[in-house]
Amino acid sequence: MIHLENLTKKYGEFTAVSNLNLTIPKGEIFGFIGPNGAGKTTTIKMMGGIMDPTSGSIDICGINMKDEPERAKKNIGFIPDRPYLYEKLTGMEFLRFIGNLYNVDNKSFTGKAEEKLNMFSLLSWADELIESYSHGMKQRLIMAAALLHDPEVMIVDEPMVGLDPVAVRMVKDLFKHLAGEGMTIFMSTHTLKVAEDVCDRIGVINKGVLIATGTVGELKKKSLLVDADLEDAFIKLTT
Amino acid sequence: MPGFLDDVLILLRPRFLSFKNPLVAANSKKEFYRNLFLGTAGFLFWIGIFIISLRTLKYFYRIEGLGDILVFKLLSMLVLTSFSFLIFSSILTSLSKLYLSRDLELVHSMPVSGNRIFFARWIESTADSSWMVVIYTLPVFVALGVVNKAGLFFYLNTALVLLSLSFIASGISSVLVMAAVFIIPAGRMKSILLFLGFTLFLTLFMVFRMLKPEQLVDPDVFATVVVYLDTLKAPSSPLLPSTWVYDSIKESLSGSLRSSFFHSALSWSFVSVIIFINILIADLIYRRGFSKSQTASSRVFRYKYSDFPFTGFLTGASRAFVVKEIKTFFRDQTQWSQLLLIGALVIIYVFNFSVLPLERAPIKTIYLQNLLAFLNMGLCLFVLTAVAGRFAYPAVSSERDAFWLVKASPVKIKTILWIKFFIYFLPLLILSEILIVATNIILQVDAFMMALSFISVLLIVPGIVSIGIGFGAAYPDFKSENPAQSVTSFGGLLFMMICAGYIMAVIILEAGPVYDIFMASVHQRSMTVLQWLRAVISFSIVIVISILAIILPMRFGEKGLSKVLP
Ligand SMILES: Nc1ncnc2c1ncn2[C@@H]1O[C@H](COP(=O)(O)OP(=O)(O)O)[C@@H](O)[C@H]1O
Ligand SMILES: [Mg+2]
After folding, report:
1. Which CA distances in Å does B344 have to B94, B194, B341, B349?
2. Number of CB pairs, chain A paired with chain B, less than 8 A apart
């Protein structure tokens, strides 16, 4: 479903992501963890087609991002780390904007939009301007928008930042449910608990290099710590 | 007040630090050349104003008996216009500096009292709103000094007294803004801007009417020359700050230093009074007003989702952007309040034509009409360029932080640029055609000239919009607080210059053949083969460059924008 090959990004001389190789099968939740500045957001922006890689290739559902960016992006639900939106639209109008952009057909739109808003407890805010939303509400609105066109792949940068505990629980359950229905989810996080709870597999990135991949259990073993929790494993791996 | 100035200076420090010498602190070679280019262009513009002023002044002084009076009349018009301009610009700047800027939340969380924050912000706002007006009126005064062989005192006094004028304008504006924010209920910032915008419109219009510019060129309307001279000499109201400034400059020019000094002192003492009043008022209401202004404007009425009228035929991305762009535009005060300004500009423009004393002109009327129609076409297109600079040029920058959405969407950058092109093309085309047809009707031009202007505008408007969208996309500014101001940047300057070049090229290409056609019809003979050839070639070139002007800038913008990171 997602295939990254020798993915590299340089900002001038500085290499932010170096030679990343990854394959994520359909229906898997993949957690991308690493300390601040490791290169997670950079990788995610390249996967979302927001930024071109310096070299290497990205395939989404077998479609190459460089060759057919529009077709590849149609299959992606993209959620960035900072919820910047059009502040002067209402939640509902924003969904309509996204719906038009992704060619969601008009007949099913209203039903879908209301369902998603309800799912993220935003229905009563549907007709308020986004500028009056809180950070967490904007984050939830972006998630609702990203799911509107039933993407096959979800790419999420730090999904839990700014959400309250109820929303965190809801998002975790939602991700598991969506993956169960066949959606592939790639999420970055530095909250290890989240990674441990939801992810089928985890990749650890540090200074732009992927240093380990595997299930939580495998990673714990790799760090040669018996009975350690993921936090210890993480600190051991990245220092 | 112990420590007042210390606190104010600390609050201003971030601003000083980011204001390094743009040539020394340039981060890259590219930036260096960019700044150098901007600086040179600005300097040349200054010199241009200076030379034009010098020539105009010399011309006026040659008119026996009347010259002196005319010069002083012009001077007082200049001071009054600058003053109203300063007030207008500082109303907008102080509203944004005191209540709307993004960094205000941070500043207000600091342990500093409200009136100190106010004062630091007010200084910044004064500088921001007035430096351009002051710098670009200076060459006129320098020219005046040069022509009159004035001494050093004249230049020093003029600079200082103009400075006092900007302080006064800024002080008056901030009192108005603070009072408006305080009086008008929370969540009605929109209404405030409507109110301020409307006041401004009226002020501009009144000032313009007070100046009665058409009387300068038309002494006939006065019964006798004596009455005419008297009107010119009539002093302006002694209560207006601009009068003190004008008097001070006038007296220093004629060498009466004491009298000049008196008026300067009057002006500066008013500065201290207005600052004192401002600090008092700020102490009372600034912080409360700021806290009030935090309420988002949504609660005025709910935006129940509705399908937008007239957009039913659009689908997909074009529908998405058309609806978004229109709604955001009308909900964003900083955007639509500019419409008022443009309205004022247009009315003043058309009005100017209606008062031209065409009947009394000594030259043959048809000839003059055609000349004016040509001039009018050029002016209309320059007005259009200014409007496009306000709306089409910032079209891409106005995506601001939400630009990632555009990049992540399954739509080509090219498609989005063309959608934006059409969103701005239609209204701008309608505006310019109305302008050109209305003014041509007032000028009573013949059918040929009417058709020619109509078609030329039809050809040129898409080019100008395309240059606006294209250069706005190639040099986007997603970080600025007010995207409408992005036209003052490097890319905006390029946009203005290229548009000016394009318009002039078309007018020059058309002027020759039109003259031939016109002369042929006046003398009732047919044009020679050579003249026909020239006409065909000229008009063909106009069509070719117009097509290029539509295609090339959009390509340039697409290339540039593809490289930009959100
Ligand atoms: N636009 C940029 N220009 C230059 N360097 C950048 C840019 N964006 C990120 N970086 C650098 O790349 C590295 C990786 O950043 P990022 O991908 O944002 O890390 P994170 O894993 O925290 O999301 C950091 O060292 C950061 O400083
Ligand atoms: Mg990040």
Report:
1. 22, 14, 5, 8
2. 94
Task: Say which ligand is closest to the CA of A18.
Answer: 1
User: Would you say residue B300 has pLDDT above 50?
Assistant: no
Contact yes or no for A128 and B298 at CB 8 A: yes
Report CA(A138)–ligand 1 centroid distance (Å): 23
d(CA B70, CA B63): 9
Residue of B432, B414, B430 whose CA lies nearest to B470: B414
B100: domain range? Answer: 27-293
DSSP state of A124: G
Query: Could you tell me which residues are beta bridge partners of residue B306?
Result: none
Per DSSP bridges, beta strands A76-79 and A153-157 are: parallel
- The token pair at A136 is 């967490």
Burial level of B260, CB count in 10 A (0-12/13-18/19+)?
buried
Which one of A42, A155, A204, A209 would you pick to mutate in the ligand 1 pocket, going by the greatest count of ligand atoms within 8 A of its CB? A42
Residue A125's pLDDT is: 92
The answer, yes or no, to whether any atom of ligand 1 lies below 6 A from the CB of A12, is: no
Q: What is the ipTM of this complex?
A: 0.90
User: What is the residue with the minimal CA distance to atom 24 of ligand 1?
Assistant: A37
Collect the ranges in chain A with pLDDT lower than 70.
223-230
DSSP, residue by residue, B158-205: HHHHHHHHHHHHHHHHHHHHHHHHHHSPTT-HHHHHHHHHHHHHHHHH
Tokens 């500014």 correspond to B477
CB contact under 8 A, B296 and A129: yes
User: What is the side-by-side order of every strand in the sheet holding A184-189?
Assistant: A76-79, A153-157, A184-189, A29-33, A201-206, A209-214
Nearest chain B residue (CA) to A86: B402
The answer to whether the predicted template modeling score (pTM) of the entire model surpasses 0.90 is: no
The pLDDT, as a whole number, for residue B299 is 43
- CB burial of residue B527 (10 Å; 0-12, 13-18, 19+): middle
CA–CA separation, B386 and B392 (whole Å): 10
Q: Is the pLDDT of residue B271 over 90?
A: yes
Of B264, B293, B322, the residue at which a domain comes to its end is: B293
Give Cα separations from B17 to A127, B7, B61, B96, B481 (angstroms). Answer: 43, 16, 47, 21, 19
Query: Cβ(B223) to ligand 1 under 6 A?
Result: no
State residue B298's pLDDT score.
46
Asked whether residue B226 is assigned to any structural domain, the reply reads: yes
Q: CA geometry: angle at B13 spanning B169 and B162, to 5°?
A: 25
Q: Is residue B20 part of a domain?
A: no
pLDDT digits (tens, 9 = 90+) for B310-329: 666 677 888 899 989 888 88
8 Å CB contact of A70 and B332: no
pLDDT tens, position by position, A107-153: 889 999 999 999 999 999 999 989 889 999 999 999 999 999 999 99
The pLDDT value given to residue B382:
86
Of B303, B327, B408, which has the smallest distance from its Cβ to A49's Cβ? Answer: B408
Q: Answer yes or no: do B323 and B289 share one domain.
A: no
**B32-65, pLDDT tens digit by residue?**
787 788 888 888 889 988 998 898 888 888 877 6
How many structural domains is chain B composed of? Answer: 2
Q: Measured between CB atoms, does B300 come within 8 Å of chain A?
A: no
Paired with A76 in beta bridges are A153
A154 pairs with which residues across the strands? Answer: A77, A185
Residue B32 domain-assigned?
Answer: yes
| B385 and B249 inside one domain | no
Superfamily of domain A1-75+154-239: P-loop containing nucleotide triphosphate hydrolases (3.40.50.300)
Q: Which residues contact A238 (CB under 8 A, 6 or more apart)?
A: A34, A35, A38, A204, A206, A211
- Chain B residues close to A45, C-beta within 8 Å: 565-566
